[in-house]
Amino acid sequence: MKVLVPVKRVVDYNVKVRVKSDGTGVDIANVKMSMNPFDEIAVEEAVRLKEKGVVTEVIAVSCGDAKCQETLRTAMAIGADRGILVETTEELQPLAVAKLLKALVDKEQPGLVILGKQAIDDDANQTGQMLAALTDLPQATFASKVEVAGDKVNVTREVDGGLETLSLSTPAVITTDLRLNEPRYVTLPNIMKAKKKQLDTVKPEELGVDVTPRLKTLKVVEPAKRGAGVKVPDVAALVDKLKNEAKVI
Ligand code: AMP
């Protein structure tokens, strides 16, 4: 069984992002970029399934400009067997990515697609669900445990009241939650090995997908700055402020 793992290149989670002065978006010039953390978890899970012998090939796919090759090399250093870059300089929204992934699902026929539950730049949490709808495949989102059992896959999800386990028939779409696994450190020998792995490039047109954005960003603003706090002398003063100033009790 093949597994397709979509990996997005995003601003590194340690970077404090800055909004562009004209409010059109976030400034990503000279900013450290990395693989979306949930996608690293997805690659790790796919590689673990391969190590268990239930998966034969792990294919990483990234949609975006040529620099996404770096993200694919990282996925291959974790253990993905090959990479596909869907190259475009167009701004990609979740529906466009889901359509590109559907075209690749049709071509590669994977038994599983494991995506991150959300990209930490757009926080959309849409692509996996849209892909499941477009491909008409069963989906299990926010997975905290994945077990392949024959032609079924059992997925445990954290829900409000505890844990829910779903049994899906494959092929299926899964999205990863934070507690699914802890991705391994990428070692230098594996980085070197990854450089020799196969990386194919396709254009959205070759996949027959129109990626024109459907949504327009009106403006992006920084969160309001928090005002300075005050020290209260005692509990009585605190209660008084909560009651009479903040009016929350
Ligand atoms: P989102 O719906 O944007 O929050 O993204 C959810 C997941 O979809 C991500 O964690 C990735 O697995 C996948 N994804 C989104 N955008 C891309 C992209 N440009 N290239 C590859 N995978 C993507």
Automatic annotation (TrEMBL):
Pfam families: ETF. SUPFAM superfamilies: Adenine nucleotide alpha hydrolases-like. One of its GO terms (molecular function) is electron transfer activity. The keyword Transport applies. GO terms for biological process: carboxylic acid catabolic process. Residues 23-211 form the Electron transfer flavoprotein alpha/beta-subunit N-terminal domain. Keywords: Electron transport, Transport. Its cofactor is AMP. Coiled coil: none annotated. SMART domains: ETF. Heterodimer of an alpha and a beta subunit. The electron transfer flavoprotein serves as a specific electron acceptor for other dehydrogenases. It transfers the electrons to the main respiratory chain via ETF-ubiquinone oxidoreductase (ETF dehydrogenase). PANTHER family: ELECTRON TRANSFER FLAVOPROTEIN BETA-SUBUNIT, ELECTRON TRANSFER FLAVOPROTEIN SUBUNIT BETA. Belongs to the ETF beta-subunit/FixA family. This is Electron transfer flavoprotein subunit beta.
